[in-house]
Design brief:
Elements (H helix, E strand, L loop, with lengths): L2 E7 L16 E2 L2 E2 H12 L4 E6 L4 H10 L7 E4 L4 H9 L7 E6 L7 H14 L1 E7 L4 E5 L2 E5 L5 E3 L3 E4 H7 L11 H7 L6 E3 L10 H13 L4
Parallel strand pairs: 1-4, 1-6, 4-5, 7-12
Antiparallel strand pairs: 2-3, 6-11, 7-10, 7-11, 8-9
Helix pairs in contact: 1-4
Length: 225
C-alpha cells in the first residue's frame, strides 16, 4: 500500500522572536526541517514527501536547498491560514489510497525506527498517534480556582501521526474548528477511533530559542542519528 508523508512547515516563527521561522534555522549545520525529510526518505525512498510551506518562505527554502545540496525529491505547496488548512491543501495532492504520516517540521529528532513503528501500528490499528506520559503535576483552571488532574491518565501528544488516507481525507471535509490542534483531533471529531501508541521523550518540538540547543544535545546523544 502506498505511503505518504506531509511535513507541515507553514509557521512564521513568531514565538522564536526572529525573522527566520524555526523550521529553517540551522541545527548542527543543517536546516531543522531537513532532519524530518531525511528520516522519512531513509525509511522508504519510494514514500511521497509533501512539504506545506508558508508562501512567503518558499523561495527562501529553495535557496536553502541549493546551499545545503538537498537533493531528496519532494513536492512543495503553499501552507494555509492555519495548520488545518495546510494539511487539507496537502491532502488534495494525494490521489490514491494508502497511509499518510503528518509531521511537524519543528520536531527534528526522529529516525527510521520510530517511523517504522508508527506506520506498522497504523496498518494494524487504522491509526497511530504517539504520546508520552507527563512528569509534572497537572492542574486545570476552573474560574478563579483549579484542581489537580490524574496525570497517569494523560498523555502529551506528538507527531508523526499516521492515518489511512481515505479516512483522513473524509475527516478534513469538516469545517475548521479552533480546537483542531492536530490531526488526531480532526479525526476524532469526525467519529474515527484513534490508536494511541508510545511516543519518545526526545521527540521535542522546537518552539523557543533554547530548544535549538536542547535538540543539538539530544541529537549528539541519540543513538538513532
Amino acid at each position: 500500500m502506498k505511503k505518504y508523508a506531509i511535513i507541515v512547515a507553514g509557521g512564521t516563527g513568531s514565538r522564536m522572536k526572529g525573522e527566520i521561522p524555526k523550521q529553517f534555522l540551522l541545527l548542527n549545520g543543517k536546516p531543522v526541517i531537513w532532519y524530518s525529510i531525511e528520516a522519512f526518505y531513509n525509511y522508504d525512498s519510494e514514500l511521497q514527501l509533501i512539504l506545506a510551506i508558508h508562501p512567503n518562505f518558499v523561495d527562501f527554502w529553495k535557496q536553502l536547498c541549493l546551499e545545503h545540496k538537498i537533493s531528496i525529491p519532494f513536492k512543495i505547496l503553499n501552507g494555509g491560514e492555519t495548520r488545518f488548512h495546510s494539511v487539507k491543501n496537502a491532502l488534495d495532492c494525494i490521489d490514491a489510497d494508502g497511509f499518510v504520516a503528518i509531521h511537524d517540521a519543528a520536531r527534528p529528532v526522529i529516525d527510521t525506527s520510530f517511523i517504522t513503528q508508527l506506520f506498522a501500528e497504523a496498518e494494524k490499528h487504522g491509526s497511530a498517534i504517539p504520546g508520552i506520559a507527563l512528569n509534572d503535576t497537572i492542574r486545570i483552571l476552573e474560574g478563579n480556582n483549579s484542581r489537580q488532574l490524574n496525570r497517569t491518565l494523560l498523555r502529551a501528544v506528538q507527531t508523526p501521526q499516521v492515518f489511512n488516507v481515505l479516512e483522513l481525507k473524509q475527516a478534513y471535509l469538516q469545517a475548521f474548528n479552533p480546537l483542531f490542534t492536530d490531526d488526531a483531533s480532526v479525526m476524532q471529531s469526525a467519529g474515527f477511533p484513534l490508536y494511541l501508541t508510545d511516543g519518545r521523550a526526545e521527540n521535542i518540538k522546537i518552539t523557543h530559542p533554547m530548544d535549538i540547543a536542547l535538540a543539538e544535545v539530544m541529537m549528539k546523544q541519540y543513538s538513532g542519528r
